[in-house]
Amino acid sequence: MVEEGGGGHDLSIDLKPFINFLVVLIPVLMLSAEFAKISIINLKLPEGRGSSPSIRQTKAPEQDDSDKLLLTMIVTDSVVTLGAKGGFLPSLFYREFHKYVSREDRSVEVTVEFDPSNPKKQIKNPKTGKPFLVTERQEILLFVTDENHNIINCLYTKGGDMLTDGAGNPLKTAAKVGDTVFILTNPRRQVIVTDPSTYTLRPLSAYDEMKNRLMKIKQRYADVPDGNDIILAAENQVAYDKIVQLMDVARAAEFPNIAISKLRS
Amino acid sequence: MAIQRGRNKYATPKSAGLIITSLIDFFSIVVIYLMKSYSAEGSILTNADNLVLPNSVAITKPKEIFLQVAATNDMVLVDNVPVVPTDDVRRIPQDVPDPIVAKLEEKLNASYAQEQQMVKLGALNKIQGNVIIQMDKNIEFDVLFKLMNTCGKVGYNNMNFAVMEREQ
Fold this sequence. Notes:
The complex is a heterodimer.
Chain A: H1 16-31, E1 38-44, E2 72-75, E3 79-84, E4 87-88, E5 92-101, E6 109-113, E7 137-145, E8 153-156, E9 163-164, E10 180-183, E11 189-192, E12 200-203, H2 206-220, E13 229-234, H3 240-252, E14 257-262
Parallel strand pairs in A: 2-13, 13-14
Antiparallel strand pairs in A: 2-3, 3-4, 3-5, 5-6, 5-7, 8-12, 9-10, 10-11
Chain B: H1 2-11, H2 21-36, E1 55-56, E2 67-71, E3 75-78, E4 81-85, H3 86-91, H4 102-121, E5 130-135, H5 141-154, E6 158-165
């Protein structure tokens, strides 16, 4: 308390040295702060696969491929499919939505459906009337559809995790109190519903459903020799962003050895 | 005059104490925030201009400086030097089984030869063939495939994709 009238004793703590200390500390920390963190995804391609070195000294030994799974994820502009040596799983048809955020004004957000037959279509910024730049595309959302091109809804937690039933199928209707549901984390988390309002119905993301399917495959074929491998086969026009997201999905489902190949039309 | 003098008499405080508490609160918050984003290594990788990297959950950090191949919407760069326009890469026929970007191959061959030279001199144990590929997230797969094929052909087999770490 600062007393009125000069000459009184000031009993508050002297904070000046502490402030001096903070003033020095802040620039030091600011210099070594890392705001945009860049990391890497490693693709260690075995020699000879995806590459052809000009001089090969030794011949690769013939391998027995008979008990390999050869899991392949196929991406085109409307379908994601999983295939293995035995055949294909039912395809996941999706509709693609692009979320644009304006560079000048971050509050201007537009989400529009992408039409694969007309990829050059320009999306207008509602505020300025000018078309969005391709660099303003913030996110590519893929929503699973049924045969009639209708988007399928699924229950999600508030944190954005998908809910499945005991058999690993997406929950398409609202949960009731006492239901047992599984949250799609790795490993799956079993939850008994106490408050159904914490779960909301949202369009089912193809990335989440793909993760769900991959986790089922991982569980079932845990002991195949190439149990960590997956081949990602993409069509020419698939955006790089989708490939990185699908690689994330594959790694989240514990398929860390990812190879990339091209789908020929 | 008389009125003003009178007002001064009451308005001027005898000691002006600075209220420091709120300043300290603010500084403490800033220090905590900065400590969270503190990194001892610093960032080896910087992203090229007008390049939007895709977001990913990957948290592996690059350990050393590798050769960098970057592809923006208009240029392909090797170690930040423009090499070939991306449109030229797009124009290479898509159905060739082994598409090669000639100018990029030339450039990569030069750096591969450098690496071989270093192995001869004993500066490196063996050729590692590491390359970091930085691609704009809106570029189509076709360009990526051609770049990867070219890198692999030259001998850069250990490919790394640079991505932006997603905020948790």
